[in-house]
Design goal:
The longest helix has 21 residues. Strand 1, helix 3 and strand 2 form a beta-alpha-beta unit. This protein has a 4-stranded mixed β-sheet. 40% of the residues lie in helices and 13% in strands. Helix 2 packs parallel to helix 3. It has one domain. The protein is of the alpha/beta class and 124 residues long.
Amino acid sequence: MLAEIAKGETYDIASVVSLGLRGTKDTDLFRLLTNGAAGQNILITADAAMKRRRHEAAAIQETGLIVVVCARGWNQERDIFRRGAMLLQWWRQIVTCSEDALPGTFLELPWKSRGVGKLARWKP
């Protein structure tokens, strides 16, 4: 679904699964995603505990990865179509906030369908 959104854009979209990286340790994944890549790299995840794991937060800052963390409601919603619709609704704001973010930044993507606004920034 998101790969279709990227057509005609200046960015590419891929999943960990499509890259063949399922099961890769997070810190290794951060390095693989940013190794030799031009421009910003953004990881969208529901793993909110990532910012509390010091070694992961340090690896994110070291690699300059921008992490968009989906708030609690994202992983509680069982309906994949509803999650997809919400992701599409927020997509432009995810791109805009990520483009404006400094390398190593955590952004929080809320679970709400009204009032799409800026993503909150977290500090590890």
